[in-house]
Specification:
Keywords: Acetylation, Cytoplasm, Fatty acid metabolism, Hydroxylation, Lipid metabolism, NADP, Oxidoreductase, Phosphoprotein, Prostaglandin metabolism. Belongs to the NADP-dependent oxidoreductase L4BD family. InterPro entries: ADH-like_C, ADH_N_2, ER, GroES-like_sf, MDR_fam, NAD(P)-bd_dom_sf, PTGR1. This protein is of the alpha/beta class. The chain has two domains: 158 residues, Medium-chain alcohol dehydrogenases, catalytic domain (Quinone Oxidoreductase, Chain A, domain 1, Alpha-Beta Complex), CATH 3.90.180.10; 151 residues, Rossmann fold. Helices cover 24% and strands 27% of the residues. The strands form three sheets. Strands 3, 5, 6, 7, 8, 15 and 16 form a seven-stranded mixed beta sheet that branches. Helix 3 links the parallel strand 9 and strand 10. The protein is globular. The two termini are 20 Å apart.
Length: 338
């Protein structure tokens, strides 16, 4: 028998998540049945959707997230011992899974696939730039925004796991890129390390004025990770036939559901400028993930795409990594090395 530990969410989050919302339990895993594999967790992904999906589950529930595990025992010949795999089993140090081939919809807790051969790159990229966040950045931006060379692109949450990749893809496509982030350090990092044409600290600038200065000819594509008033301001400055990919609403994740933040209505600029606004749910695009991974890998290997990571060590530090990410501590993808 293998002893395992996992985080269980016992209470719905009220505002900022608290450690008291969780319980860490230790339990014995059963013996494997035919078709099952035992995984030892190596890397765990920390993402904003963990907070956003909290009330979509009935408590108590096991804390979900993507992870990379190494096969320790196997009763499935397709997954021999030593194979690295990606699952959505979340905050646990050991787990048993099977390849059910269930459709990937909503929150895919039974997802399982082999980590692609990264040829010397860190396996952690399999839950970052070459995992769900990278697929989100690539597919949402390229398929919804359809950027053209010379266009102006604005990204909010630009220093995060998804936004930092979106901005770099926009540069690869020949666009002018403006990013919003929450600190001067992140602003400098986006400009000097990732090559954004302009980055702005939304906490210290007048967003409307600063954006008009940075994009005097208007905005063609907007990648929205945060929602709120800043998104209304950005969409009001978009050009005719502008495209908006809505992938997150971080500004509202910790808000009381009955008292959501208010923002200026956007219907008039949407109508007058014939804007296209489309929401993006990554689970609906699972059949395209590996296509995105191939292109992202090529960009990484030829030096066009950087893959910054914010690494936290230790299973016991998962909650601190989560709240730190929600507070904006991370530069790039937040991951935990177990």
């Amino acid at each position: 028998m293998v002893k395992a530990r996992k985080y269980i969410v016992e209470k719905y989050f009220d505002g900022i998540p608290k450690i008291s919302d969780y319980k860490i339990v230790e339990y014995e895993l059963p013996s494997l049945r035919n078709g099952e594999i035992l995984l030892k967790t190596e890397w765990i992904s920390i993402d904003p959707y963990i907070r956003a999906y909290n009330r979509m589950n009935k408590v108590p529930y096991d804390q979900f997230s993507f992870q990379i595990g190494i096969v320790q025992e196997s009763l499935d010949p397709n997954y021999p011992i030593g194979t690295r795999v990606v699952t959505h089993k979340g905050w646990c140090d050991y787990t048993i899974v099977s390849d059910k081939k269930a459709p990937v919809k909503d929150i895919p807790n039974d997802i399982l696939y082999k980590l692609q051969d990264l040829k010397g790159l860190s396996p952690s990229l399999g839950i970052g730039a070459l995992g769900m966040p990278g697929a989100t950045a690539s597919l949402a931006f390229l398929e919804i925004c359809k950027p053209k060379k010379g266009e102006t692109v604005v990204v909010t949450g630009a220093a995060g796991a998804v936004g930092s990749i979106v901005g770099q893809i926009a540069k690869i496509k020949g666009c002018k890129v403006i990013g919003f982030a929450g600190s001067d350090n992140k602003v400098n990092w986006l400009e000097k390390e990732l090559g954004f044409d302009k980055a702005l600290n939304y906490k210290t600038v007048d967003v409307q004025t600063a954006l008009k200065s940075a994009a005097p000819n208007g905005i063609d594509c907007y990648f929205d990770n945060v929602g709120g008033e800043i998104s209304s301001i950005i969409m009001a400055q978009m050009n005719k036939k502008g495209r908006v990919a809505v992938c997150g609403s971080i500004s509202a994740y910790n808000a009381d559901p009955s008292q959501m933040p208010k923002a200026t209505i956007i219907q008039l600029p949407v109508i007058l400028n014939e804007l296209k606004i489309e929401g993006f749910i990554i689970w609906e695009w699972f059949d395209r993930w590996f296509e995105a991974f191939d292109q992202l890998t090529a960009w990484i290997r030829n030096g066009q795409l950087k893959t910054p990571e914010h690494v936290t060590d230790g299973f016991d530090n998962l909650f601190e990594a989560f709240t730190g990410m929600m507070s904006g501590d991370n530069f790039g993808k937040a991951v935990v090395k177990v």
